[in-house]
Design brief:
The structure holds 2 protein chains of 2 kinds. By secondary structure, chain A is mainly alpha-helical. Chain A has one domain: ABC transporter involved in vitamin B12 uptake, BtuC, CATH 1.10.3470. Chain A contains 14 helices and 2 strands; from the N terminus they run E-H-H-H-H-H-H-H-H-H-H-H-H-H-H-E. In chain A, strands 1-2 form a two-stranded antiparallel ribbon. In chain A, helix 4 crosses helix 10. Chain B is mainly alpha-helical. Chain B has a domain of 201 residues. Chain B is built from 12 helices and no strands. The radius of gyration of chain B is 19 Å and the shape is globular.
Chain lengths: 356, 294
């Protein structure tokens, strides 16, 4: 008797909801075992990771702050992923977006022109888009794999950031720290709720979600993108331009990551510093997949991953867990999601040898 | 020690983690898969090797444990990609993040501890050669084993039936399956081999090259190894050559001083990535690689 995986004609709706929930449960179980094996108080760790963020308004607002870039980038990436355009270097587009946005306050630290903030966001959006489109150009013109090109570009972006922060952009009065001057007030995003750090970038992210939903589910372009991903040949025969899907998939991913990068320096950081490379670009890939590449699912998954980030911070204090526990949790979550996702796409069939 | 002597002495050791990880990934990609989790597999290998050597004092055990744990992590990738046909990009990232996280988790209490590395071996006659004798030709045992291993891998891939089968699986899995080659088994073994090699690479980095554990000590070498496979156009000799080249570059500012160029070190650090993009463009124009989407 052999096991066989048979592709379902249509994904079962119940499975679509149960897969992520099951993945979360399995992740919790696995991390409980892992933390206990390390001699930590596993219960306290899980409590800190998943519940603490909800226990005070401030920590909940921090969840919303984290959620903004993750949600924004993931929505952009998912559009590409659904068309089989794999932009793995959102981290790079995020950094370039942050760089471009920072150029304004760095060169005009006293510039009190009213358009400062909108211009920064526009610069960031442009920078992120252009940086992603390099990969689109190389893919459509030469056939170079966008997986590797975007990844390499992300690694180069980190070096550009290091160069600027250690050299020309270093704050002359910053005690030699690798960071720029603090941005003036008019270069900062307005705060959404008083007394918190949550800013209007959350609205950008929600807007992007609405846009992604309308485009992917209700617009012809979204249909083309999805077809290109599910059945590349069918898309070809239907006359959908494959290069256009690549440009669109990468461009929108870069755009979203660029805006997120700009919002990061104009938001919680308030300056360009090394910690801008905190891995949102990579975490957003996890968010996109765990959200089932679905605009609504991604809202839920970005919230979950943000909770774990903030919970991870408090777990370092209350359960003595290293910050890396968050990475472990994210890795396990994606692993189990990809595993349980099989339940959606395939059904398991037993091959029985039929006696002749 | 002059800059040149330093480079001659240090390049092989600096290249070694890149070489091992890249050769492992090369075999994986030759069977038609792409595992992006190198960085994580190297990190967990490095952490486990360090912990093992710290407690037992045995480098042999350290390397073995590293190879084992990284193979286990690689098998998670195999389960996802070969077993349930999940997206390989996402699967590679999942185990990459997991490996990095686990390495930091396990290594936490060993930070700033040190162990002793491996001695450099004086080989009679060879070490008396002027200039390169005491530098290039005086290396630790792992370097020499890696040189032999690289030759052995070249032989297997280019001169044996197994090498042909691996190539066949990568070029056209369906055809390979229809003439009776065990595609799934070959791929499983390739992924396991890739994991083990990453483990060894990490072990060398944390217990020989710089015998200490620090979170994030792999520092992007997994990504460079991934780039290296493309740079070497999936050929053992070229990958080995590329590893040497990238190894020199990774010595960064020292290389810049030795070459007498006044470039910022970030330019040198970016070179492997830039060259890889260039290689991708050149290769993809000429022929489509078996592993990557067109």
């Amino acid at each position: 008797m052999k096991l066989r995986l048979i592709r379902r004609d249509s994904a079962s709706r119940i499975a679509m909801f149960t897969a992520p929930v099951l993945a979360l449960v399995l992740t919790c179980l696995a991390s409980l075992i892992l933390f206990a094996a390390l001699g930590k108080d596993a219960g306290a760790a899980l409590h800190a990771l998943l519940l603490k963020p909800f226990l005070s308004w401030y920590s909940f607002s921090e969840v919303l702050l984290k959620m903004a870039p993750l949600l924004l980038i993931a929505q952009g990436l998912a559009i590409g992923f659904r068309a089989n355009v794999f932009n793995i270097g959102a981290e790079g587009q995020f950094i370039v977006g942050a760089l471009c946005a920072s150029a304004l306050p760095v060169y005009y630290p006293d510039g009190d022109f009213p358009m400062m903030l909108p211009a920064m966001i526009a610069f960031g959006a442009l920078g992120g888009t252009v940086y992603a489109l390099i990969a689109a150009a190389l893919r459509t013109r030469f056939g170079a794999s966008e997986i590797l090109v975007t990844l390499m570009l992300a690694l180069i972006a980190v070096q550009i950031l290091n160069y600027l922060l250690l050299g020309p952009w270093k704050d002359p009065r910053g005690f030699n720290f690798p960071q720029t001057v603090m941005f003036p007030d008019n270069a900062m995003l307005p705060i959404l709720f008083d007394g918190t750090r949550t800013n209007i970038s959350l609205l950008f992210a929600l807007l992007a979600s609405v846009f992604a939903y309308l485009m992917m589910q209700h617009h012809f372009r979204g249909y083309q993108l999805r077809t290109a991903g599910l059945a590349p040949r069918a898309a070809l025969y239907a006359g959908f331009s494959a290069p256009r899907m690549v440009w669109l998939g990468l461009g929108l991913g870069g755009l979203a990551a660029g805006i997120a990068g700009a919002s990061e320096v104009a938001g919680p950081l308030g300056q360009l510093q090394r910690s801008v490379t905190s891995g949102y670009g990579y975490a957003a890939i996890i968010v996109a997949y765990v959200g089932g590449l679905n605009p609504l699912g991604i809202i839920a998954s970005s919230f979950l991953i943000s909770v774990i980030y903030i919970g991870g911070d408090s777990a370092t204090v209350s359960a003595g867990l290293p910050v890396a526990a968050v990475e472990v949790f994210q890795g396990l979550l994606l692993f189990f999601y990809l595993l349980t996702f099989t339940l959606i796409r395939f059904r398991i069939e037993f091959d029985r040898k039929v006696p002749a | 020690m002059s800059g040149l002597e330093f480079l001659l002495a240090g390049t092989l050791a600096a290249s070694l983690p890149l070489l091992l990880a890249a050769l492992g990934e090369m075999v994986v990609e030759k069977t038609g898969l792409l595992n992006l989790g190198l960085e994580g597999m190297m990190a967990i290998g490095a952490a486990i090797a360090f912990i093992c050597v710290f407690h037992t004092g045995s480098h042999v055990l350290g390397f073995a444990a590293a190879a084992l744990i990284s193979t286990v992590i690689a098998m998670l990738f195999a389960i996802l990609v070969i077993g349930v046909k999940a997206n390989e990009v996402a699967a590679g990232l999942a185990i990459g993040v997991l490996g990095l996280g686990l390495s930091a988790l396990f290594g936490k209490s060993y930070e700033s501890r040190t162990i002793s590395g491996l001695p450099k071996i004086d080989i009679p006659i060879l070490s008396d050669v002027p200039l390169i004798g005491p530098t290039l030709l005086t290396q630790d045992i792992v370097v020499w084993l890696a040189v032999l291993g690289t030759m052995a891998l070249w032989w297997v891939l280019n001169r044996t039936k197994l090498g042909l089968i691996i190539a066949a699986v990568g070029e056209n899995a369906d055809a390979a399956r229809s003439i009776g080659y065990p595609v799934v088994l070959i791929r499983m073994c390739a992924v396991a081999f890739g994991g083990a090699m990453c483990g060894l690479a990490g072990a060398y980095a944390s217990t020989v090259y710089t015998p200490l554990w620090a979170d994030g000590m792999i520092a992007g070498r997994g990504w460079i190894a991934l780039a290296l496979v493309v740079f070497g156009t999936w050929q053992t000799g070229r990958v080995a050559f590329g590893a040497l080249l990238f190894g020199i570059l990774s010595l960064g500012e020292l290389t810049a001083q030795a070459m007498g160029v006044g470039l910022p070190s970030q330019v040198l650090s970016s070179l492997p990535y830039l060259v890889t993009i260039l290689m991708l463009v050149v290769i993809s124009r000429r022929r489509s690689c078996p592993t990557l989407p067109p």
